[in-house]
Specification:
Number of strands: 7
Number of helices: 7
Shape: elongated
Number of domains: 2
Largest sheet: 3 strands, antiparallel
Helix content: 25-40%
Radius of gyration: 22 Å
Length: 168
């Protein structure tokens, strides 16, 4: 069973502000995890003793709000303002991976694409012009261009579609 559902069935709840209420009706203090999401430590009874688990707050909020719909294929929990620590009910919605990616501000998406995989930071303006020319005039495939200019496919797409290097 998913940890958020198991916690909910045990009695853990969330407030409209995105706070977690423990079994003794007290607010639990979340901690920021390595991925930037808030989590709380909870205890789930097992046949032998207690089992300590980390529960991501946004997933418990989503389960409290949407129930088993959270587990539908392709569903992800979204923070619509892009802030991973804002777990208020107004900020948590379900959506696809694409919806989730689009919640990240455009500037950050471009930054991530620019630095994804192998770095394209070594490319010059002349390289960018040549990449676009190779694609447009020579009709080279992405794979063929990547052999000449080693970067990530995402970065190459950004260059060709003028999402990055717009001023070139």
């Amino acid at each position: 069973m998913k940890i958020c559902k198991e916690a909910f069935l045990k009695g853990y709840r969330t407030t409209r502000k995105g706070e977690v209420i423990g079994l003794k009706k007290a607010k639990l203090s979340p901690v920021v995890g390595t991925g930037g999401y808030l989590f709380v430590t909870i205890y789930i009874n097992k046949i032998i003793g207690q089992k300590r688990r980390h529960l991501e707050v946004h997933r418990l909020v989503a389960y409290h709000k949407y129930g088993d719909k959270l587990f539908s294929p392709g569903m992800e929990v979204r923070h619509i303002d892009g802030n991973k620590t804002n777990n208020s009910w107004d900020n948590i919605v379900l959506g696809t991976h694409f919806n989730n990616a689009m919640d990240v501000p455009l500037e950050l998406r471009i930054k991530y694409a620019t630095h994804a995989g192998r770095s394209n930071s070594k490319l010059t303006k002349e390289d960018v012009k040549e990449i676009r020319r190779l694609r447009r005039e020579e009709q080279l495939t992405y794979r063929e261009i990547l052999e000449i200019y080693p970067t990530s496919k995402a970065a190459l797409s950004g260059i060709i579609n003028k999402k990055t290097w717009k001023n070139v």
